[in-house]
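Researcher: Final request for today, and then I'll write up notes for the group meeting. The sequence and the SMILES for flavin-adenine dinucleotide follow.
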Amino acid sequence: MKEEKRLDLVIIGSGPSGLTAAIYAARSRLDFIVLEDDLIGGQIRSTYVVENYPGFLSIGGQELVDKMYEQAIKAGANIDEFDPIISVRLTEEEKVVETENYIYKPEAVIIATGSKYRSLPIPEESTYHGNGIHHCELCDGEMYDGKDIVVVGGGNSAVEGAMFLSKYGKTVTIVHQFDTLQAEKRLQEELFRNKKIKIIWDSEVRHALGESRLESLQIENIKTKEVTNIKADGVFAYIGMIPKTELFKEYVKLNVWGYIEAGETTETNVKGVFVAGDVRSKIIRQLTTATADGTVAALMAERYIVEKRRNK
Ligand SMILES: Cc1cc2nc3c(=O)[nH]c(=O)nc-3n(C[C@H](O)[C@H](O)[C@H](O)COP(=O)(O)OP(=O)(O)OC[C@H]3O[C@@H](n4cnc5c(N)ncnc54)[C@H](O)[C@@H]3O)c2cc1C
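Model: Predicted protein-flavin-adenine dinucleotide complex:
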């Protein structure tokens, strides 16, 4: 029999939005837990450098989340990273979050689960996943020291990834489906100055090929339809993000792109269920918007709990 725990709040996810919510929840003296099913810190943990978070001219992604984590712990947060969630039930009347070890019954829930990288849409993705096909240059880049690396995509992540990988790769080739990059101009300028990186425009990856390991990619020029093979020991794909809503979609309303719908108050269609950070429907997904959501969600959750108790 699992132990049942009644508490004020469960925060799901310990990225910047979840950690910020934890800081505010702790300072509001709520009885709460943060549940995380991976490493603490979320996406920014694997980011080389952050230069747009106020208060820091330049800071490593890992260092920044370490500081957020330390601040949350010092404020009194309790974070469990070793107890994955199995299921949830989120209604106005009752909220249940069941993990492998516990059944949590909180008054309120904050969903702060962020998003994950979209997989490369090719038949061989699962064959080479983690062993030829990657999404995190900081985690896996070193494996390709002196090798031929391909980066897929043209946004900030792809450009930052390519520049980082150029420290290791013998060659770094970006394959991009359009004829211009979508990354910030400042990043593009830096990229174009890097002589090691070349770009193949208007092209998409169709297949990953190799005997026992990845050796090349088949790419198609989507304008001319010409198909060519390029050498690739490792591929790093940055072709968009998918919101992590699998556990909750039965209960909370999603928008057409799969993000959880909520406005300024961060409250979802289910009373007492709030959503913070990249997983929320919004236009701009950045650290500052994620931490702002975490703040609002925690304070709105507190108000909700106080009000509910007053009306009992
Ligand atoms: C390569 C890269 C570079 C970036 N650079 C910048 C930058 O320079 N400046 C900037 O402002 N923004 C940057 N961003 C964007 C920024 O990282 C995100 O906006 C921010 O991390 C969103 O925070 P979040 O807490 O909403 O989500 P996330 O960071 O995605 O964190 C969500 C957390 O929830 C956890 N989780 C998910 N599902 C579950 C579950 N079922 N149970 C428990 N835990 C779960 C995840 O493991 C993760 O730890 C960058 C993003 C990337 C990918």
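Model: The chain has two domains: 3-116+241-310, 119-237. The radius of gyration is 21 Å.
Researcher: Thanks, that's everything.
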